[in-house]
Design goal:
Molybdenum Cofactor Biosythetic Enzyme, Chain A; 6-stranded mixed β-sheet; Molybdopterin biosynthesis moeA protein, domain 3; alpha+beta; 8 helices; MoeA_C_domain_IV; Molybdopterin molybdenumtransferase
Length: 432
């Protein structure tokens, strides 16, 4: 069987998932709940607006001062010059958070940054441009100056933030399809938006297949191993904003089919194991409508994709089946994680608004030679040394999960070469 190129397989996965990811449901969430999630998470969970969010109040909500200074009527300073400054009596101060009285003609009012502009005032003179260049506050604070001189005219609107100059009430404050980050959450709160409609996180049914597998936290039996794939891929999926239901499934077709019907609202079924050429490949032998074949890469050669019909267990044909995309990875832990990075992470990250959607990539020289199968893309694990060179971590084996855990980059050795010498520049993806 001819091998599929990694680029071709990545494109096929993207096409398979596109309808399900585009058609997933939306949900309304409280902005306060998004803030609570941000406080609890080391990284803000990615959420994408499904509809425009419109401001409840204008930003700013009132004319306010851009500077600490004096609110004035520009017409009162028309004749001011350095030789003949205009001196105005100073009225009550306007701290932030207070509603000022109207400014009488021929007077100035001390105004603080962000405080409302008094009615009648139309400009602000910075405190450092007035005489005295301060408010004369005493030990207890406040304003003690009774008059101030101004040596120059001021244009109306100077240092005044006008109401609605950022966004007007009922206008779009954050547009649909925008990922909600720090600035967007701040804008929503400032504009009085209480709840927003967002795309629901993609729900992934993650099935680790293998009779030898034991979920984390349970005791091992003879010839059993812990389910590393379930743990690693659950975390990887969560990092790109997915909701995960994870199960361990033995090498039994009935158990696999039962697990497929267990979760009815999954947007994607992701399996690990059971796709190679062995005698107990439960995914490959049970899901005979899917495609299974080799991809020209190491690790992660055996791959599968297709669709599964998900119907409530025990309900017969009463309800129509949902057709859900299936992506099948090999079972070795490094193979599964490398497959996720190459084929699934970019698609899911774009759908959920994860930033950046693709791993940071660049080229760096090898610190040591590397041998590679000429017909395959070899993905090795590595770290950058103090000189910016790539040092490999462990060998090419697909079982070396601890070495992957110690790596900070994935090293892409391209097909068509059997050996790269030290100093050769290679493509790397930063995964730390």
């Amino acid at each position: 069987m001819s091998r599929t190129s990694p680029a071709e397989h990545a494109a096929r996965v993207a096409r398979l998932l596109a309808p399900a990811l585009a058609g997933r449901r939306t949900e309304r969430v409280l902005v306060a709940d998004l803030l609570a999630a941000a406080r609890q998470a080391a990284v803000l969970p990615p959420r994408v607006l499904a509809r425009d969010a419109r401001a409840i109040v204008a930003l700013p909500g009132f004319d306010n001062s851009q500077m600490d200074g004096f609110a004035v009527r520009a017409a009162d300073l028309t004749a001011a010059t350095p030789a003949a400054p205009v001196r105005l009596p100073v009225g009550p101060a306007v701290p932030a958070g207070t509603a000022p009285a109207p400014l009488a003609p021929g007077t100035a009012a001390p105004v603080m940054t962000g405080a409302p502009i008094p009615p009648g005032a139309d400009a602000v003179v910075r405190i450092e441009d007035a005489d005295p260049p301060g408010f004369g506050a005493g030990p207890g604070g406040g304003v003690t100056v009774t008059s101030a001189a101004f040596a120059r005219p001021v244009a109306a609107g100077t240092y005044v933030r006008t109401a609605g100059s950022d966004v007007s009430a009922s206008a779009v404050v954050v547009a649909a399809e925008t990922t909600l980050g720090p600035a967007q959450l701040g804008a929503l709160v400032a504009a009085g938006v209480a709840d927003v409609e967002v795309w629901a996180p993609p729900h992934v049914l993650l099935l680790s297949t293998g009779s030898e597998l034991v979920p984390a936290g349970r005791p091992l039996g003879p010839a059993q191993v812990f389910d590393a794939n379930g743990a690693a891929l659950t975390a990887a999926l969560a990092q790109v904003g997915c909701r995960v239901t994870a199960r361990v499934v033995p090498d039994d077709p009935a158990a696999l089919l039962s697990a497929l019907h267990e979760t009815q609202d999954a947007d994607l079924v992701l399996t690990t194991g059971g796709v190679s050429a062995g005698a107990y490949e439960v995914v490959r032998s049970t899901l005979d409508d899917a495609w299974f074949g080799p991809v020209a890469m190491q690790p992660g050669g055996p791959q599968g994709l297709g669709t599964v019909a998900v119907r409530p267990a025990g309900n017969g044909d009463a309800d129509p089946a949902r057709i859900v995309p299936l992506v099948a990875f090999p079972g070795n832990p490094v193979s599964a994680l490398v497959s996720f990075e190459l084929f699934l992470r970019p698609v899911l990250a774009r759908a959920t608004g994860t930033v950046p959607a693709t791993r940071p990539a660049r080229r760096a020289p090898l610190a040591e030679p590397v041998d590679s199968p000429p017909a395959l893309l070899q993905v090795r694990r590595g770290r950058l040394d103090d000189d910016g060179r790539v040092r490999l971590v462990g060998g090419p084996g697909s079982h070396l999960l601890a070495h992957l855990a110690a790596a900070t980059v994935l090293v892409h050795v391209p097909p068509g070469v059997a050996r790269l010498e030290a100093g050769t520049a290679v493509d790397i993806w930063e995964i730390s």
